Amino acid sequence: MTTLLKEPKAKKLGLKERYAHLTRGLGWETTYQPMSKVFPFADYEGIKIHDWDAWEDPFRLTMDAYWKYQAEKERKLYAVIDSFAQNNGQMNITDARYINAIKIFLTGVSPLEYMAHRGYAQVGRHFVGAGPRVACQMQAIDELRHAQTQIHTISHYNKFFDGLHDSRHMHDRVWYLSVPKSFFDDAASAGPFEFLTAISFSFEYVLTNLLFVPFMSGAAFNGDMATVTFGFSAQSDESRHMTLGLEIIKFMLEQDEGNVPIVQKWIDKWFWRGYRLLTIVAMMMDYMLPKRVMSWAEAWEMYFEEAGGALFKDLARYGIREPKYADVARKEKGRLSHEAWCTFYNYTHAAAFHTWVPKEEELAWLSEKYPDTFDKLYRPRFEYWQKQQEAGKRFYNNSLPQLCTVCQVPMLFTEPDDPTKICFRRAEHKGETYHFCSDGCCDIFKDEPEKYIQSWLPVHQIFQGNCGGATIPDVLAWYHLNNGVDNLDYQGSPDQQLWDAWMKDRGKAGG
Q1: Which spans in 156-224 are helix H?
Q2: Distance between CA 281 and CA 437 in Å, rounded?
Q3: Are strands 418-422 and 414-415 parallel, antiparallel or unpaired?
Q4: How does strand 418-422 pair with strand 425-429?
Q5: Over the range 179-198, which residues count as b (16 or more CB within 10 Å of their CB) and which as e?
Q6: Which residues pair with 379 in a beta bridge?
Q7: What does the pLDDT read at residue 508?
Q8: How many angstroms separate the Cα of 340 from the Cα of each of 100, 108, 292, 476?
Q9: Which of 214, 255, 310, 496 has a CA between 20 and 30 Å from the CA of residue 226?
């Protein structure tokens, strides 16, 4: 009698094993061409990688799972957007002044999501290991989705309010939008490891909470549920992006001790570049939200000084210290937003959004949040400008400001230890003089002068006749900015008139 033996049942792959087969299993060693030719940018930055398999992927999603997961979030997001539109959600915000923060977000931040998509798609091609290649692919798709959903979320406001009609065109031309654009142009023209340090670590991990958390909280406080829902939809993606940022730093530092000084230099550079970019966020938080969540100073203390301080204590075991000039940021937290708002108040005739003198209760809030600086340095300006406006002399600065060659922000910042004196630095390169807003930007220039002498500085371009003409109306037409509609003070603007008419009609209906 013979006994038939059953063939052993095939072992079902675990989630981790299946993921490894669908990601790491896709890589191979080249044969007829050397790996160095296929991946020419893997080592030209000086970063040494000895074991690509040591990479820990923070995404751990297969492509089929990714699309199912994101499709469910899309379904919920667009249901809210549709409901918001059908129920005239734009009438439930606190005040039409809030929409000017949305205008900055759409024209200044949303294009960065698309630039990040392109950047990750590009640098992912240049990594030898399959792990970072898959991570970059996943984040590239995330960033493209964010750009699309942000534009769809905010597009409803374009039906009613001015300044949102041509954001793609404005992004490549308008003077203040050169600040975020130059940030990503700088990162995208770096090597793959520096790009990930710039975007995944310095921006996504160290600084992104200062953008997304206060802004989305501000949207909720001000009745903008469409934007809040987008924020929730993107938040799970952002948490993965932050994990990728920390992973790339630790991966480089653990591979070779020679990587430490290179990574430290990048952290110093990209902390400062990201911090300067967030100047406009500080202004939005303190001045553009009718109902405020927290001050810029409070957000900086919470999300950088406390959270960032803990992070850099953790990285100290690798030989990494806190970014250079973080102490300057601490000194500026009590005045950054005020200096930015005062500058935009001066130049709002050349911007695609409105500014205004804060109301008395808002001045009181600013005095409370900034007891050491506001009443002494900034309240007198607003009180004077208010008197001028009441006398029919609303002030606009018709000069063109000096721009920083690196961050491209106008020279609005003050000396770290003297808030009454404009901070001004200069450096020479091949017989030409270049100007900077800070020691941080000056240092960045001196390290890579050949890169930054190519900066497209809007004021210089206007003087050279490359922006539509020699007069402000010529330049505004080149921007596609509708003079007298998209710009100037909020008081008397079409946006204000529309809002007041809505509120009047609502009052009649309620009565």
Answers
A1: 167-171, 178-188, 192-196, 208-221
A2: 18
A3: antiparallel
A4: unpaired
A5: bbbbbbbbbbebbbbbbbbb
A6: none
A7: 65
A8: 15, 15, 17, 21
A9: 496
Residue 293's contacts (CB-CB under 8 Å, 6 or more residues apart) are: 214, 217, 218, 221, 285
Alpha carbon distance 184, 476 (integer Å):
24
Residue 2: its pLDDT value, please?
54
Q: Could you state, in chain order, the average pLDDT of each consecutive group of 10 residues for the chain (511 residues)?
A: 59 73 78 90 93 82 83 91 93 95 91 94 91 89 92 92 93 95 95 95 85 82 90 82 90 96 97 95 95 94 92 95 96 97 97 97 98 97 97 94 96 96 97 97 98 96 93 94 96 97 80 42
User: CA angle at residue 112 from 473 to 121, to 5 degrees?
Assistant: 135
DSSP-derived secondary structure letter, 36: H
Whether pTM > 0.85 for this model: the answer is yes
Per DSSP, the three-state class of 414 is strand
pLDDT at residue 5, rounded to an integer: 57
d(CA 43, CA 127): 9
CA atoms within 13 A on the CB side of 253: 22
The residue with tokens 């409070």 is: 298
Burial of 251 (0-12, 13-18, 19+ CB in 10 A): buried
Contact 464, 472 (CB under 8 A): no
- At 418 the three-state DSSP class reads strand
The dihedral of CA 155, 159, 161, 165: what is its sign?
positive
Beta bridge partners of 435: 426
Task: For 239-304, give the DSSP string.
Answer: HHHHHHHHHHHHHHHHH-GGGHHHHHHHHHHHHHHHHHHTHHHHHHHHHS-SS-S--HHHHHIIII
Distance from chain centroid for Cα 428: 30
- Compute the residue count for the chain: 511
Partnered with residue 428 across adjacent β-strands are 433
- Decide: 280 and 104 in contact? Cβ < 8 Å: yes
In the DSSP assignment, the letter for residue 2 is P
Report how far residue 266's alpha carbon sits from residue 276's, in angstroms, rounded to the nearest whole number.
15
